[in-house]
Specification:
The complex is a heterodimer of chains A (114) and B (119). Chain A has no helices and eleven strands. With 114 residues, chain A is mostly beta strands. Chain B is mainly β and 119 residues long. Helix content of chain B is 0%, strand content 50%. Chains A and B meet through β5 and β10 of A and β5, β9 and β10 of B.
């Protein structure tokens, strides 16, 4: 089955700096890579995703890159703000043949210091 | 996200007791999942159901059972709770989205969670 490794487990940055979280996956058949943000005491929520047919996707201050050859993908947050403080999870899935299960990384706790 | 509800919000349970966590969705999604979330271990899949009437085992199914009698409900039962089942439990359901020119993909919506403590 799929295995997703996520690094680092904790990350502290100064407000305004950039933050990068990296994930690797094992199953070359995986073709969908979402990122979820979980604020303290809340449920995880999708913030951005990428499909295997593209290498990069941006949404305002958030971007995700994918290297299928190396089987790794990364989340980039620029101009960080205190409200970006949360736990971020990467995930991987093979979307096809009726199967949509996600395998999650263990999470990264991001702290943005004002 | 409206559409998935869980009950109870939190529960303290004596070891050995039976407990059912409830999950209901009104989005008419076919698939539903149960995860447990533990510090440092992320979200781990317990059981899943791809459609009403079918269920499957995830990564950590031992000690848990599920049923899927209809599309909307997916209860998770702990037959005899143990302290290692202390965790936050999330029910989730994927919205299968389609974009022009691309294969279908899964946007997973989570319920609000149930915090369970087994003493």
């Amino acid at each position: 089955g799929e295995n997703v490794e996520q690094h680092p487990s904790t990350l502290s940055v100064q407000e305004g700096d950039s933050a990068v979280i990296k994930c690797t996956y094992s199953d070359s058949a995986s073709n969908y890579f979402p990122w979820y943000k979980q604020e303290l005491g809340k449920r995880p929520q999708l913030i951005i995703d990428i499909r295997s047919n593209v290498g990069e996707k941006k949404d305002q201050r958030i971007a995700v890159t994918l290297n299928k050859t190396a089987k790794h993908f990364s989340l980039h947050i620029t101009e960080t703000q205190p409200e970006d403080s949360a736990v971020y999870f990467c995930a991987a899935a093979y979307s096809g043949a009726g199967s949509y299960q996600l395998t999650f990384g263990k999470g990264t706790k991001l702290s943005v210091i004002p | 996200i409206a559409g998935i509800t869980q009950a109870p919000t939190s529960q303290i349970l004596a070891a050995g007791r039976r407990m059912t966590l409830r999950c209901t969705q009104d989005m008419r999604h076919n698939a539903m999942y149960w995860y447990r979330q533990d510090l440092g271990l992320g979200l781990r899949l317990i059981h899943y159901s791809n459609t009403a009437g079918t269920t499957g085992k995830g990564e950590v199914p031992d000690g848990y059972s599920v049923s899927r009698a209809n599309t909307d409900d997916f209860p998770l039962t702990l037959a005899s709770a143990v302290p290692s089942q202390t965790s936050v439990y999330f029910c989730a359901s994927p919205l299968i989205r389609e974009r022009p020119g691309l294969a279908r993909y899964n946007e997973q919506f989570f319920g609000p969670g149930t915090r369970l403590t087994v003493l």
